[in-house]
Amino acid sequence: MENVRETFKEVAAAILPVTIVVLIIQIALIRLPLENILQFLIGALFVSIGFFLFLLGVNAGLLPVGELIGRTLPKTKKPLLIILTGFFLGFAATVAEPDLRVLANQIDQVSDGAISSGVLVLTVSFGLAIFVALALIRILFTIPIHAMMIGSYALVFSLSLFVPDTFLPIAFDAGGVTTGPMAVPFVLALGIGIASSLRKNSTKSGEGFGLIGLASVGPILAIMILGVLYR
């Protein structure tokens, strides 16, 4: 019951400020028709209900299962299995990411189908999956995170010189939308579970953090490569 109460407070804190700001702008400036405002309020209600149920599901299922998988995998003593599991889980979580679907549909509409939503979703998902696998390699072999981050962004900035201007902003937006409500809880819990299992002391188990920051570089590079191929 406490979890339900806390989740309700989180949802209210997330949705109410946006709703209030939109209503203030409506009254003070834009004065949209009443029908549009009612649609917005009904939509905000549905979003609140969906967000509430989603967070309950995350806390009850995604986070515990992700961490449990992360704690169990190292016991197999098979690094390749751990890396492949991270790849496929990262891919599946990104395909299901609602933020990515919104971005893909918007780009599909703006480009008149030249960049289809299906191609974009798969490209971004593969990019994130590959970098989730690399992030797990970092945890397994204790590679310094700054070395991988510097190398990754050096590659991003180098490749940006050859990417068409149309694809460059899409690439960086793709990196942002993958840090959404589906990928982050599951992948982060997986990384922390693996790090905690491999490093028994609390200091080293913190190596599970930084996984999302590194993984989000993957979609940027993937869209840049797609842009070079579309050129």
List keywords for this structure.
single chain; globular; mainly alpha; 231 residues
Secondary-structure element pattern, one letter each: HHHHHHHHHHH
Radius of gyration of CA atoms, rounded to a whole number: 20 Å
Spans where pLDDT lies below 50 across 5 or more residues: none
User: What structural class do helix, strand and pairing data support?
Assistant: mainly alpha
Strand percentage lies at: under 5%
Give the integer mean of the pLDDT values: 87
Terminal Cα span:
55 Å
Structural features, described:
The termini are far apart. This protein has helices at residues 2-30, 34-72, 79-95, 98-110, 117-140, 145-159, 167-177, 183-198, 202-205, 211-215, 217-230. The chain has eleven helices and no strands. With 231 residues, the protein is mostly helical. The longest helix has 39 residues, at 34-72. Helix content is 81%, strand content 0%. The model has no long low-confidence stretch (mean pLDDT 87).
